[in-house]
Amino acid sequence: MKKVVLWLGLVVFLAVSCSNKEHEQEPEVANVNFTPCQQTKAKSAESTGEVDVEFTNEGVKITHFDFEVTCDFSAVNVTHTFVNGVLNIIQQSSPNKADCICYTDVSYTIIGISQSEVNVIFINDEQVYCHNDKGNGDEDDIPRVILCCATFGELPATNQITSHRIEGDYLKMTICSSGCDGSSWVVKLFACPNDAAIYPPLIDLRISFENYETCAAVPCREFSFNIENLQMQGTNKVQLNVLGNSILYEYD
């Protein structure tokens, strides 16, 4: 009887060991494929560096066309970090020693990341995807904040925001500027998650402000934005940075 127990124990141990070993060897990035060196392929404005992002049942599939590599490459190594909705991907050819360059098409899938979790994606520090919800917040047609770091960087750091507050899932801003009555003003709110490792996570905000009114008055208007898409998994609060002033957004 003791021999049977020992034998069964050994079988269970071996099964668990094999299972754990397979799990440890499972790569974070699956299906890394690339074409041979395309030395004769001309770079064009339409296709050079184009990146296709597709969310599937497995995760996020990346296809990078005409990725620049050295002529001696035999593989493309891909690593990534995923923090606070920001997916940072590093692609590098290996070896990486030749003086000449060529281009290759790279494709891979990062397992276990869903579209609802991702705000922005960077590949080698260049943004290739941002969550831009063009829909409205609710029946009142309140616009949503636009999550897009690339556009964010083009906006001025100063603007006409005189006050701001949060009511539920809405950020309300009062804007004053020269004009007639402000009725024709067009205001959009942009957000970019800050990469600083702080808690609660910090999200920087700026506005795009269009004002073509030429009157000498200085009217003020209040604008509302739905900020539900700034909610992050794993926390029930984030800090919103509006021109250096932090305001806490808490949610269920």
Topology:
Blueprint: H1 2-25, E1 29-34, E2 51-55, E3 59-70, E4 75-83, E5 86-94, E6 101-111, E7 120-123, E8 126-130, E9 146-147, H2 149-152, E10 161-167, E11 170-176, E12 186-193, E13 202-210, E14 220-226, E15 237-242, E16 245-250
Parallel strand pairs: 5-7, 9-12, 13-15
Antiparallel strand pairs: 1-6, 2-3, 3-6, 4-5, 7-8, 10-11, 11-14, 12-13, 15-16
Account of the 3D structure:
This protein has 252 residues and is mainly beta. It has two domains: 28-130; 146-250, Immunoglobulin-like (Sandwich), CATH 2.60.40. 11% of the residues lie in helices and 45% in strands. The strands form four sheets. It has a five-stranded mixed sheet with strand order 9-12-13-15-16. The longest helix is centred in the N-terminal third of the chain and has 24 residues, at 2-25.
Summarize this, please?
Helix content is 11%, strand content 45%. The protein is mainly β and 252 residues long.
- Radius of gyration in whole Å, from Cα? 25 Å
CATH class of the largest domain: Mainly Beta
**Mean pLDDT figure:** 78
Largest sheet: 5 strands, mixed
Number of DSSP helices? 2
The name CATH uses for the topology of the largest domain is Immunoglobulin-like
Annotated CATH architecture of the largest domain = Sandwich
Structural class: mainly beta
- Count up the domains: 2
